[in-house]
Amino acid sequence: MIATLALMAMSSNAMAIVVDATNNIPNNGVATGVNLVVGQAFSITADLDDLWSAGALPRWSNANGLVADLLATGTDESGEAFGTLIGKDWGMYFDPAGSGFSAPYGALVGRIGGTGSYFFVGTTFANTAAAAGELFLFYWDSVYTDNTSSINATVSAVPLPAAAWLLLSGLVGFAALGRRRPAAAV
To answer: What CATH code is carried by the domain that includes residue 62?
Structure first.
């Protein structure tokens, strides 16, 4: 019964967030409205086929950033003919504030709170919050005036009561295991 309650409590509210390549750059991310506490589980996903651009060809990518050759499908956001090289590896961009963080140009990046540490999101991210505050998402690029398009990210956070139920069910499980152990022979 406790396990069932824990699973029911684990359901989270998914929110769709539009991250714009021109406006949601480092230090100007889009606020997601998701407020996290330390240790709270959350996830972020973006479709592999959802593209944005860091400028002139070949600088189109998905949320993983400019990490590999990408060819136009003929129907994608680039508007280029099928088979045209629209993206390639452009290397890493380092946090301009000097934190030491780096991610591929054109990647989806997150940060908790207005001054928290950046972290790479890409197309799939799941972790627990290392800090408390609102989750912000960014297009990772140094020059943004030639960027175009946006991607849709889905943010989910496990509600806090779910964490409490999971902890409680785990403790009950350990207690039950402790009672079932046979007494040691003397």
So the answer is: 2.60.120.430
pTM surpassing 0.90? Answer: no
CA 18, CA 31: separation in Å to the nearest integer? 10
Q: Give the residue among 31, 29, 32 at the shortest CA–CA distance from 16.
A: 32
Q: Are 90 and 59 in contact (CB under 8 A)?
A: yes
Would you say residue 168 lies in a domain?
Answer: no
DSSP code, position 83: T
Number of domains in the chain: 1
Domain that holds residue 94: 13-158
User: For residue 162, which of 43, 44, 40, 45 has the smallest C-alpha distance?
Assistant: 40
Contact 140, 103 (CB under 8 A): yes
Reading the chain (186 residues) residue by residue, the pLDDT tens digits are 343 333 334 445 799 999 999 999 998 999 999 999 999 999 999 999 999 999 999 999 999 999 999 999 999 999 999 999 999 999 999 998 889 999 999 999 999 997 889 999 999 999 999 999 999 999 999 999 999 999 999 999 998 654 455 555 565 555 555 555 555 555
173 within domain boundaries: no
Tell me the one-letter amino acid at 35.
N
The answer to whether residue 182 is domain-embedded is no
